[in-house]
Here is the input.
Amino acid sequence: METGGSSESSVEPKKGKSKTRRKPKESVLKQKSPAEFFAENKNIAGFDNPGKCLYTTVRELVENALDSAESISELPVVEITIEEIERSEFNSMIGLVDRERVDEALYDDYESAKAREKRLAKEARNQEIQAKNALLGKKTKEPTPVKGIKGRGEASFYRVTCKDNGKGMPHDDIPNMFGRVLSGTKYGLKQTRGKFGLGAKMALIWSKMSTGLPIEISSSMKAQNYISFCRLDIDIHRNIPHIHLHEKQENKERWHGAKIQVVIEGNWTTYRAKILHYMRQMAVITPYAQLLFKFISDASDKNMTIKFARRTDSMPPVPLETKHHPSSVDLLLIKRLIAETSKQNLLQFLQHEFVNIGKSYAERLIGEMGPDFSPKMAVKSLTDQQIVRIHQLFRQAKFDDPSGKCLSPAGEYNLRLGIIKELHPDLVSTYSGSAQVFEGHPFIVEAGVSIGGKDVKLGINIFRFANRIPLLFEQGADVVTRTAIKRINWSSYKISQWQDKIGVFVSVVSTKIPFKGTGKEYIGDDISEIASAVKSAIQQCCTQLKTKIVKKIQAREQQERKRRLSWWTTKWH
Ligand SMILES: Nc1ncnc2c1ncn2[C@@H]1O[C@H](COP(=O)(O)OP(=O)(O)OP(=O)(O)O)[C@@H](O)[C@H]1O
Here is the structure.
């Protein structure tokens, strides 16, 4: 309420106090665009710090590339390159002149003469101790680096490029696909890696925040005689693309696919291991893809090229779009379906917009709704109350479970192949569960358990996948970790958590993965259907392994008996 001349403004300052009391600011109503919201809260999309931003950018681009190739049943060929950009090169890219430092003491990494003297003395003392110990033949610990001048505090910049052989994008859609937060083609009820219409835009927002540079997209669809090229950035306040260049170029080679390039701040040193780990796990779950990873730097010892070769041509089937299951819809969704349906009457609407409602079941449901409802009534004329009644009945009535036919799990063969190819274990077992349901959404759990192998640590090593995306963060809270650590009695399968190198691989696919957050980092442990399916899949693998382990033990014992027998025989004859 407006109070006109507010009493607060007339308050006299107290005696002896020099400060005048501040007038509280009126709160002003403001709106934020989705792009602004995500720019201010980029951590919820997995863009926490420069290192994690580099990792998530790679991830988002690779996952889009795989989604795109798989959508046209093309065996994926994906090339991802991270190129380190020197500060001077970066400055010249943005037209900034390199400047020599004039006032050194102004900088964060400035070291005074006294501090330098102290540091050098400490380094010399450390070296002396090392040399003495070496003379005495004592084992020496790696000396802890002496705190010296701070890291230059300078940002590192990287050009990230991802090229695929996928479907490409229609020329006119490209600006909105990359320059408007919450826009995409994967919102339907379908198993895809992408879901939110956010990832590529977050890479662009981060590039805009850290380097100010635009994103570049080249794309061509099958049999298209031109390549669409688009350079754009995003108007954060209005959440619309800001196009720098959008043109058609010649496509002599009839290439199809997409090439996306962004220049961002990052931190390769701290996130190198995570990025390589991600690529390796992606190779496990997609052995039918050819993945090429390159890191390019002026320091040639940092350069690397890793090829994850394709090991099979057998690709999981393309996931199918499905309709909503009546048990999974809420009021808003029912209203949206009514607004969008092409069906005229209630009977047709129920039959055609949902799975598992046949004609006679739809008639029974309508009968149950009450006297205000009839099969022939116009669906668009339903009142709000009538829609609430439909929703209530959907929640109480019994429906057949949705089928898992629309899903595309990796398949036991691919999972086993991926594990063997990347880990070379001594023993491996895999299991593929049948389709199950949570809150009306179908899901399938597949699992693998391995013993031994290359680069596998002692104890339980968890590998998690959701809609064929490797999940690397928030491991402790994830349903797979919790199940493997707390709910499996490993010793009852003759597997030792302390002496064996155990690999636990669990892949969940669904039309709706219940991720916690838009960063797609883990699946919570609160959905009992998923938790019990994960447990049962791991147990199935362990049961198979137990048989193999017992056979191995028996074979070893038999060999030992034979050896002893032959020893005795030679001794007494
Ligand atoms: N490499 C690509 N090939 C073809 N289309 C692409 C490619 N990359 C992005 N797209 C299109 O751009 C859209 C937006 O991509 P974006 O990464 O922002 O979101 P998403 O993949 O739909 O969802 P999520 O935010 O969950 O990753 C995608 O839905 C897709 O249609």
User: Anything to note?
Assistant: The pocket of adenosine-5'-triphosphate is lined by residues 60, 64-65, 68, 164, 166-169, 177, 184-186, 194-201, 258 (CB under 6 Å). The first helix runs from residue 34 to 40. Residues 1-13 have pLDDT under 50 and may be disordered. The domain at 35-89+154-308 is CATH 3.30.565.10 (Heat Shock Protein 90).
